[in-house]
Amino acid sequence: MKKSHLILFYLGLLLGMNINSQDLYINSGGLISASTGARITVGNNIIVDSEGSFIIKNSTLKVAGESNSGTIKYVKTLNNSNWQTFTSPVEGQNIKEFAERTHLDSGENLSSNNMGIQRYNNDTNDWGFYQRDSNDWGNFPVGEAYFIKLRSITQNDDPSTFYDISFEGSIPNTSVEFNAQNNVVDGSQNRLQFIGNPYISYIDTNDESSSLMKYNDETMEYKTLYFFDTGEWTFTEINYNTASKIIGPSEGFFVRIKDGEKFTFPKNLITHERKSHYKSKNSIKKSIHLRVTDNAAGNYKRTRIFYTDGASKGYDPGYDSKAFYNGANYFGIYTHLLDDNLGDDYGVQSLPQNSYEKMIIPIGINATAGTNITISTTITNLPSGINVYLEDKETDIFTELNEESTFTTTLSSDLSGIGRFYLYTTGQVLDLIKTPILNDNISVYSTSINNLRVVGIQNEQAIVRVYNILGKKILDTHFNGNGLNDIALPLNITSGIYIVQLITSTKKHNKKITIE
User: Fold this and answer.
1) Residue 279: other Cβ atoms inside 10 A
2) 370-384: b or e for each residue (b if 16 or more CB lie within 10 Å)?
3) Residue 214 — left, alpha, or beta (φ > 0 → left; ψ -120 to 50 → alpha)?
4) How buried is residue 230: exposed, middle or buried, by Cβ count under 10 Å (0-12/13-18/19+)?
5) Which of 3, 184, 222, 351 is the most core-located residue (most Cβ within 10 A)?
């Protein structure tokens, strides 16, 4: 339709049709029902009379005006009945009313009042279930995300509508700001916030020039958004280097927001488009994607390495992303930084596009004893002649990783952290038995005021000496390297800067650290 002032007294179903109007006025008895694929653009304002009806199903809506009024019904069809994220794209939707018209799953026996809606609690870093017939949760706050799970479909259900969830209320008419509510958990600020797209439109999340991340660049503690992956059953990292991510209407995610800051969903960023053409820029990036699989359970996790102009071997905000963990026990794979390693696990690491042969990447795996694991890889656009090898320091074996070759082993003991596995990018042919390559990728850092952690020394004796800033030796001890070693520091040590000297039979390593 051409731009116009559209006044509707009654209109039937609009299947996949587009509306482009200056004003949209639905009078008493009027109806617009736009289904899958429709794109509705209103240049000024929407007014829906109390007896009018505006229904949008699996479509998008852009409204430029700021005086929208009336109730709009948004219907979204879920992919399945598994847990998935959602955010209400309207204001004023009561949670109890939403629950009563939705095919929610429920608990059993003593948990039978637990319904299939979960809310994240920043105060406890935990989840709470909506309780059957409860009024306690009030309305969905604008921009706050939840998890939803539907019950299993039965032969008595209508499959064409069973997976539909619906929201009724007014749409946000300005940019939406989410105020961070950071609370102290286990002695430190918990900056995790579970939020989501409050519009019936798409928003680009990670374009480097104009996106949700770019707009909120200074408000995030880490320049990373975490989206739920039903395959890995965890939240995966999205940053400027990962594949383009366009967040759909009512889709939720996690982000860490600085104290006292707001995360903003700018109205001017909303779009009808998925922007699939962005994929082309990601297909030319140089990258290694590693995957670890629990061969018995079928569970898998991934970590990604990108080689990027301007990246360093240390921390690059917006291009390096710490792995998302919401709980201590997890099966996973990750990397550590090559420079200034503080013991953090990274789901995405970006490195320079040169010196491939000189960069040896620590690979961390968490898995329990007896687990049979396979490590596989997808390699994209690395320079010709550069191969990828995995070193297992426990067995002194190198394995080339490519589309035809993987590494498989059964763990004899629990595995947690780095120290056993390292990744090489090299033009050399590394033998399957130990190859005499000097690995200087040693990390030294304090995990507390009384503990020093040394990572990267395996199957050899080492001496560690610690000096204060005045050159006075305060510790002189030795240990047998097992990949990850914790060294007790003197009980009377004080916070400050220290020099750690690490000596093995082949090398000497000096490191300045801060203990606090």
Assistant:
1) 10
2) ebebebbbebeebee
3) alpha
4) exposed
5) 351
Query: Using CA atoms, how far apart are residues 312 and 234, in angstroms rounded to an integer?
Result: 28
Per 3-state DSSP, the chain is made up of helix, strand and coil in percentages (nearest 5) of 5, 50, 45
In the block, residue with structure tokens 């105020």: 179
User: For 279-329, what is each residue's pLDDT tens digit?
Assistant: 445 557 999 999 999 999 999 999 999 999 999 999 999 999 999 986 556
Instruction: State how beta strands 31-34 and 13-14 pair.
Output: parallel
- Residue at token pair 């929407």: 46
SS3 (DSSP) at 197: coil
- Which H or E run includes 443? strand 443-448
Closest by Cα among 389, 193, 219, 207 to 290: 389
Residue 443 zone, left/alpha/beta (φ > 0; ψ -120 to 50; rest): beta
Tens digits of per-residue pLDDT, 24-77?
888 888 888 888 888 988 888 888 888 888 999 999 999 988 767 788 999 999
| Strand bridging mode 332-335 / 473-488 | unpaired
Report which DSSP code applies to 17.
-
Cβ contact 362:418 at 8 Å:
yes
Q: Are residues 75 and 168 in contact, defined by beta-carbon separation less than 8 angstroms?
A: no
How many whole angstroms from its chain centre is CA 133?
A: 33
For residue 313, which amino acid is it? K
Q: Which residues pair with 237 in a beta bridge?
A: 226
At 393-444, the pLDDT tens digits run 888 889 999 989 999 999 999 998 888 999 999 887 765 444 444 445 677 8
By the 8 A CB rule, do 27 and 53 touch? no
Contact 392, 432 (CB under 8 A): no
Cα distance between residue 324 and residue 346, in whole Å:
9
Q: Residue 13 to residues 21, 38, 74, 272, 403: CA-CA distances in angstroms?
A: 18, 11, 15, 20, 50
Give the amino acid at 435.
T
Q: Kindly report the CA angle at 86 between 85 and 89, in degrees rounded to 5?
A: 160
